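Supplementary Text 2. Reproducibility record for the structural model of the 405-residue chain.

All settings were left at their defaults, and a single model was retained for analysis rather than an ensemble. We include the record here because the model underlies the residue-level annotations in Supplementary Table 4.
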Amino acid sequence: MIRLVEMEDLERVRGFLEAHVESSLFLLSNLALFGPRVGENWNSGNYRLIEEQGRVIAVFCLTRRGTLLVQAGGRADLAEPILEACEGEPFDVCGVAGEWSLAQALWDLLLADTRFEPGQGSTKDVLYRLPLSRDMARLPVESLPAGLRVRVLEPGDFEQWERLNTAYLAEMHMPLPVIDAAHEAEFARRARARWWWGAFVGDELAATVALNAAYGAVGQVGGVYTRPSDRKKGLARAAMLELMRASATLHRFQKLILFTGEENHPARRLYEALGFETGGAFGLLLGSRRPQARTPLRHRWSGLSGELYTYDVLAWPARLGTGPGNFIFATSLGAGHWRPVLIGESSDLATLAAHERLRNSNSWHPPSHVHVRLNFNPAPVRRREVNDLTARWLSPEHDERPDGR
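Retained model, structure tokens:
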């Protein structure tokens, strides 16, 4: 049985994931940070579990970013029901992250969809582990040439870090993030937690290493990158040593894990020289989906002011794209006429499926359709549209004539 993870399930879910901790760090870390329901953060999502004879045998989560995080303890046969369960989410599956056997099975199913386009560089990764001890405090400090130094990154380093991070993602053929206030705030949060380290040439950031997930006594390393002009100077090695030292002494981790491409031999030589040992295989497989071509159904709503607003009409539930806009949940009365149920605006239309009014209102009557309109105007402008339409359609004086205009 597949169902949403509830609060009373968390202990069992964590126990299952902890039993496979090395390939479950994304799931465990995001669950601890954001809880089991989708929220504003791009790494949040609705956690689901699969039970078999009362036992949890799989946990998965489709994040707002479109990455399906999965753990099934090697049960590749669960790929199809997991993917089917994600069809009810408001986001498309655009990638998979998890232990290799299940990730590969899910990837094969995605590749069978003609709308899916695999990203470059989506290959099998080698998972590495490194046991840590307090002796890490005595790790050697790398002797760097004059003008080169390593330090923990600070929130004020965002601009330099973003340039380097964009270059890293492009080189790895990974999707580029939306550069907004939330993106900067997430970097600042991780920098304050001493999760990002950098190597500098003078005042210029030239190399980065990071913790990209953590849970309990285990940290996961990622974001290891050196700009091309400064490679083979020992910058990544020096930054890795500082991260390893901080992981043991500051974060009190007992183990670090990381994964890198099976064919990325320079990176593998670096990690093995630092003492990391292979520990299995992992899949971080990313792509994108082409939207299905269709002629959208549209409807024009009139506000009390007389202004007309044009909305796209979709059967509900619907999988909506990301972006700010206005929405109207409505019931079809036939012949192009509609009865509005709820009129509102959202900073991200993709989150409407998790709308609190939909989940918690006892008086809610499920609508047949949702009318949506992308609207990049500021929130006060979107709210004026809501008020104009609400005054026309949901006021006590509304005469209930189903003319929809």
